[in-house]
Amino acid sequence: MSEQPELFDGDNEPLYNIGAVSRMTDVAETTLRVWERRYDFPNSSRTDGGHRLYSQNEVVRLQWVKSRIDEGVQVSQAIKALHHTEQEGRLTEIQESAYTITPTNSTDAFAAFYDRLLSALLEHNTVLSDHIIAEALTIHPLEHLILEIISPIMNEIGSLWEQDKIDIATEHAITNFLRHRLLQWMRTSPPAYNVNPVILACAPEELHEGSLLMLGVLLSRLRWPVSYLGQSIALNGFDAFIEQMEPSLVVFVAMTEQSAKELSEWPHWLPTIYKANQPQICFGGRIFVEQPAYIDGVEGVFLGQSLEEGISTLNRLLLDMYPRAR
């Protein structure tokens, strides 16, 4: 592994306009303006045209305050608590908020968007689908959109195809529509930390990359750098790529029995990595949830029973590797 570089270069650089910050923090633009006038918070810079720009650190501070408000604390008291925590030097408590995807307890908040988007996709109405996604993003953070709407829709499309309720062309059209959106979100995520990347790959013979793409977006949103490889990565010769990339972690996704069996052979193809346990190999996917016996057949770190567990496990491993990110 190369020497660990600095993590936080540029965190105070003005990067995000008010619309982006509103989506990232789930705080309305009008509310951000009111708070700035009333409480001198959050801090913002201005472009030559007078538009607000916010740094990554300011987004983190906003996320912390929003979490306190969601717990029932009044706005003014939440902001005072932020300043008090900073004055006492307990910055870890604030920084932690940037690395946690807060689950929502309300399914009703997403049900209408789920139904509308699924209907539009099944009707091949991509223009309406994009409008629904854009509308959802004005209300919900991207992380919640992925976990509560995109992921269930991908699962439903797969089930409809398996039940012969939609044809393969429809399944491919919808999957590719969502795939392109996920790739776009991955490319437009906040600037990544200057650390070694996480390699994301489908196991050999695995063509279903939806879960892998969503993991990539969620990791990127947490500012971990990602090297996304996609479908069916052969293990033969893969060690040379790993040696060149020097990744922090290698993540495989397997959805079927065949791909899980292929993945179980990775120590044979990657013996040096297996003996050194460096980098760590992580794995997950539907087959391990539906048939847990396959978990014991694969060496490495099992990511968990869900996408939420997977991103939590990866984030914890990365924070252990790079403690300054805490």
Q: Would you kindly provide a written description of the structure presented here, covering whatever features stand out?
A:
This protein has helices spanning 18-25, 29-39, 56-70, 75-87, 91-95, 108-122, 126-137, 142-162, 168-187, 210-221, 238-245, 257-263, 266-269, 271-276, 286-290, 307-321; strands at 16-17, 45-46, 52-54, 198-202, 226-230, 249-253, 280-284, 301-302. It has a five-stranded parallel sheet with strand order 5-4-6-7-8. With 326 residues, it is an alpha/beta fold. The protein has 16 helices and eight strands. It folds into three domains: 16-99, Multidrug-efflux Transporter Regulator, Chain: A, Domain 2; 108-187, Orthogonal Bundle (Methyltransferase, Methionine Synthase (B12-binding Domains), Chain A, domain 1); 198-325, Rossmann fold (3-Layer(aba) Sandwich). Helix content is 54%, strand content 9%. The two termini are 21 Å apart. Helix 3 crosses helix 4, helix 8 (142-162) packs antiparallel against helix 10 and helix 10 (210-221) crosses helix 16. Helix 10 links the parallel strand 4 and strand 5 (226-230).
Strand and helix layout:
Elements (H helix, E strand, L loop, with lengths): L15 E2 H8 L3 H11 L5 E2 L5 E3 L1 H15 L4 H13 L3 H5 L12 H15 L3 H12 L4 H21 L5 H20 L10 E5 L7 H12 L4 E5 L7 H8 L3 E5 L3 H7 L2 H4 L1 H6 L3 E5 L1 H5 L10 E2 L4 H15 L5
Parallel strand pairs: 4-5, 4-6, 6-7, 7-8
Antiparallel strand pairs: 1-3, 2-3
Helix pairs in contact: 3-4, 6-7, 6-8, 8-9, 8-10, 9-10, 10-16
